[in-house]
UniProtKB/TrEMBL annotation:
Native source species: Pocillopora meandrina
InterPro entries: DUF7869
UniProt protein name: DUF7869 domain-containing protein
Ranges where the DUF7869 domain occurs: 20-151
Length: 279
């Protein structure tokens, strides 16, 4: 059974550095995938559900382009400012191999707890994760099908990020290490004094972490006719996701060793349509 394909359960972790509280957003592969839209959903849910009253946000993450460093996240942060969730947002992408996130410790605790865990269903992983930190247990938020919204389509209908800055030079988000939204600090070219500048229609970009580096200012076009504050994104997936046939066959063979009623979770899964063979 070791070589059988198993069902993936995903865990997106957020660490509140002010309270030292870890938050885990969990779902399995029949609920959603694990791309930038899923990450955007977790971020939005965290920032709007676990409200601290702060008006300024500084967030850090790795630089994964598929999940964290992309136009979907840029548009989401723009939306968070324009809708009044935060006045100032700064996001920094850490340098791989040279930096440390508290999440690394969180996930090492989970890996340690996994070794003695008995798991039959994805929701059992929620219990494992919740118990992994014995000093300050993680807050676990199980993401369900209706929780995932189509943020990509929604944001693309409201905001469009241009590829060039004010000077007409191309700006590569994949090379960025610092993104600033809402209000940003800038030195006055005449007096040399630092001042706060409101830029709701721009994302300011730096390729490093130095405050001496001039901001690269990229326009975020706002589709005015699509910015009704009452609009909300639709569901990302209309129904439970299907599993590729080969994996489903493995899962249903493994299900023979799973007790009832947990076994039914695997027996009721549906197979996805096989991909057409290349000619």
């Amino acid at each position: 059974m070791f070589y059988k394909r198993q069902l993936w359960t995903y865990n997106f972790g957020i660490q509140d550095c002010m309270s030292n509280q870890g938050y885990m957003f969990m779902w399995d592969e029949t609920t959603a995938k694990r791309g930038s839209v899923e990450v955007a959903n977790c971020l939005y849910n965290f920032l709007t559900e676990f409200i601290t009253g702060a008006r300024s946000l500084v967030s850090y993450s790795d630089g994964s382009s598929g999940q964290n460093r992309n136009k979907t996240i840029v548009a989401l942060y723009t939306e968070l400012h324009r809708t009044g969730v935060y006045e100032v947002l700064n996001h920094k992408y850490l340098v791989r191999g040279h930096t440390f996130l508290q999440n690394d410790t969180d996930f090492s605790q989970i890996e340690k707890r996994k070794k003695s865990a008995v798991v039959y269903l994805p929701e059992d992983w929620c219990k494992v994760v919740r118990e992994a930190n014995t000093v300050k247990p993680f807050v676990v938020r199980k993401m369900r099908l209706p929780d995932f919204k189509d943020w990509r389509s929604f944001l693309e209908s409201r905001h469009a990020m241009l590829a060039k800055n004010r000077d007409g030079k191309r700006v590569q988000i994949l090379d960025a290490h610092w993104l600033n939204f809402g209000w940003g600090e800038e030195k006055d070219p005449i007096s040399g004094q630092t001042q706060m500048v409101h830029h709701p229609d721009e994302v300011w970009v730096r390729y490093g972490f130095s405050t001496d580096e001039p901001w690269k200012k990229v326009n975020i076009q706002c589709h005015r006719q699509q910015t009704d504050a009452n609009q909300t994104p639709g569901r990302l997936y209309p129904a439970r996701l299907k599993v590729v046939p080969a994996k489903l066959e493995d899962l249903q063979q493994i299900a023979a060793f799973v007790p009832e009623p947990q076994r039914q979770f695997y027996l009721t899964m549906e197979a996805a349509e096989p991909e057409p063979k290349a000619k």
